Amino acid sequence: MRNLLAMARRIIRQIVRDKRTLALLIIAPLLILTLVWYIFGAKTSEPNLAIIHYESSDYLSAFKASDYTRMSPLQARQSLADKEIDAYVDLKDPIKVHLEGSDPSRNGLAMNKIQKSMQKMQQLSITSMKNQFTDVIKAQQKGIQTQQQIIRQMSEAMQHYAPGALAQIMQNAPKAEQPNQAKAAEKVKLNVTYLHGNDDLNTFDAFGPAMVGIFVFLFIFMIGGVSFLRERTTGTLDRLMASPIKSYQIIWGYMFGFGLFVIVQSFILTCYIVYVLKIYNIGHLLDVLIIVFILSFSALSLSILLSTFASNELQMFQFIPLVIVPQVFLSGLFPIDTLPSWVQAIGNLMPIHYSTEALRNIMIRGTGFSGWWLDGLILLLFSVIFIVINILVIRRARPIAD
Amino acid sequence: MSYPIKGEHLHKRFKNQIVLDDVSLTLQEGEIYGLIGPSGAGKTTLVRILLGLEKADSGRVELFEQRPTLNAFRSLGYMAQSDALYNELSAYQNLEFFASIQGMHGKEKRQRIDEVAKAVELDQDLKKNVSNFSGGMKRRLSLAAALVHRPRLYLLDEPTVGLDPMIRRKLWTLFHYLKGKGATIIVTTHVMDEVAQCDRVGLLSEGKIIAEGAPKALTEHYGVPSVEDIFITIEKEGAKK
Ligand SMILES: Nc1ncnc2c1ncn2[C@@H]1O[C@H](COP(=O)(O)OP(=O)(O)O)[C@@H](O)[C@H]1O
Ligand SMILES: [Mg+2]
What we know:
Chain A: It is a multi-pass membrane protein. The complex is a heterodimer of chains A (402) and B (241). By secondary structure, chain A is mainly alpha-helical.
């Protein structure tokens, strides 16, 4: 135990005295997350739209002046070419939409907005149709009323002159059915409710849990890996191995020493994204912290393991495309349900996959312990497996009875 | 007489290069044994195998007359060819760490650190960061780290390389002092004027110990003025055959 503490204390001192590493560990993830927050979290700007041939249109009211600039066809074509507007709508029947088209995301925004207006337009035409029908029906009703009056007068006359014939007619006449009252026109508007999250949930809120995982993993991986690698290359690991320290004390010493910074880093990072960036979070801060913390351990233990296969810092960084990049893509940032099953199987071997799932459950779905314990357990299992392998690797390098 | 370290019929090859070819070596308690040989002869490899840092392909190593155990390392001070120090830490923190993992603590540890720092003349520089040390200072600190827990057996791989003659002489005085206190020392070197300071030397050439004995006896036996010449003589004999 004393050896283990000596190891941990030394690592803590090393990091504290190495300001660059400390900054990389704590400040760099914050900076990058802030950047990502600006990129994904920014409110999307409104599309610039215009309409032409609106003068004679019945649907002008569906295209509010605040959303659609009124233009002449020539003006509109020019503005579209100059990228001043993203699209314009030609209201002459049949209605046409002209898009600028070079940026898919702007196309989407413009179409979205125009479709909303089209819905309104349909409502307008339905209302006008309804009004027309009501007029027709009213006219018919008037006709029927006059006919009924005539019939009444006729039957009075018949009662007077031929009561027998009238009784026969009355008996054979079909019963007139009273038409049901016409149903009120149904509302065309959709009523949307959210099981999780709400209308305000932006891209960053959804990506956040994955992002946190990725950056925590990346930085711990780099720093942990390089620092253990240095232990090998400078020969200090040999010195440790030629001392009475036990193999597991070396590895656990690393885990403990780094663990302290990992706690501090997890805490600062989590507080930062929740309280400063105000990422959507309805779960407990503590739950988030625990997951980030467990994830860091798996990153640290994996980096120590991989540092065995690197003989210098550059080779250590060469693992990043191999270890980090696939995790970014398979972490849940992008849907993976449609990928071939072997790719999904690889995804299941990636720590960040589980942290993302757990953090989504906590932050967006608001599930408590029941929503993350399994993912947390799997992450812990990763760490344990990596740590055991690390200890075995060290032990194998010492042909001494432990 | 006990044998602090003993290697028998050690073989080692890296890929297809034979580095050690049936090397046997036994140290007597209280002697300074010099392992001499040109660079690449396999000195470092031999020392690492004796320590258990490297596994021999075949052969047997005994530390203090038994199979090496972790406990045996308490009585063993190893100074690697590289300095093996933590550059981010101060000299004191380095010594403190190595003393701690050797099981020292408290007042004893602090006193001992001051003692070894004085012995290698670094007592004025203990607070400095190792990254600011010169090559020679690092070498001495590395030696101090090997001394700090008062081992009975020292394995020093080129301890004096890159040091100026004054300091080198002082270190040899220190080695003799340690020997006087009963320690056994194995030193690798390719500096020939250090050879005379050893009680016994082993000449390692291309993975074999080609000659072994007290320096004086060796030079007389081969009839040459210096130990260096023995390498040349033996090489010539080999060529004749
Ligand atoms: N880990 C290793 N892998 C491959 N070759 C090695 C390794 N360590 C040493 N060697 C080779 O073994 C030979 C002896 O090296 P070494 O023991 O360091 O010699 P010395 O210490 O006498 O200069 C050298 O040719 C060196 O290239
Ligand atoms: Mg060497």
